[in-house]
Amino acid sequence: DIQMTQSPSSLSASVGDRVIITCRASQNIATYLNWYQQKAGRAPKLLIYAASSLQSGVPSRFSGSGSGTEFTLTITSLQPEDFASYYCQQSFTPSSGGGHTTSFGGGTRVEIK
Amino acid sequence: QVHLVESGGGLVKPGGSLRLSCAASGFAFNEYYMTWIRQAPGKGLEWVSYISSSSSIIYYADSVKSRFTISRDNAKNSLYLQMNSLRADDTAVYYCGRDFGDVVPAAIDHWGQGTLVTVSS
Fold first, then answer.
1. Strand pairing report for A45-49 and B115-119
2. Does the beta-carbon distance from A50 to B107 stay under 8 Å?
3. How does residue A101 score in pLDDT terms, banded at 50, 70 and 90?
4. B74-114 pLDDT, tens digit each
């Protein structure tokens, strides 16, 4: 199974800060990597899919990059509504068969400094 | 407007069973992969199961394989999760989600509000 490791697990930042969250995969997943935002008591929301594609309606201050095993989510100029938890998810399907599973990173909590 | 509404959660004793439902509206339900994701209290997200649009392809996480069964009724725009032999570590909010992948799952672009399952004696 593919393991996803996010860092940091939490961070404190101020409004206007640039925030970078990293996600590492235990094996090459090309660009099959998604990012979600989850606010307290709410369902997750898709932000970025296929490593760098912005989901419709998501502000352009969110961006994703990376391929292979290392990925980043960047929030430029953090806004009050961005304080939340963020999760990466791999959606890689091995060409060798064996089915498709998915897995999430452990999450990064972005708190107000 | 895509809308997913889960139901069927509640308190159940260890070893018991529960069936979750997810009512879908606002999109062509029979054209999408659907999925169940769960989140234990204070913990991260854990994928549970996927089902393809025609029910021909089904995947489970190892943690629920042989205990949980995913199914769908495209005529009723509904997704289900039959959960048997429940354990305390199955306690979680269960979300249903729509995946926009075509041949294989890709990303979950719509989520329900979740339903809480508590397994306790």
1. unpaired
2. yes
3. confident
4. 999 999 999 999 999 999 999 999 999 988 899 999 999 99
> What integer pLDDT is reported at residue A25 of this predicted model?
98
How far is the alpha carbon of B52 from chain A, nearest alpha carbon, in Å? 11
CA of A103 vs chain B CAs: smallest distance (Å): 6
A26 contact partners, CB below 8 Å, separation of at least 6: A2, A3, A4, A5, A69
| φ and ψ of B41, to 5 deg | -55, 125
CA dihedral sign, ordered A113, A56, B48, B121: positive
From chain B, the residues in CB contact with A101 under 8 A are: 47, 59, 61
Give CA–CA dist B69/B41, Å, rounded.
23
Mean pLDDT of the B37-66 span:
96
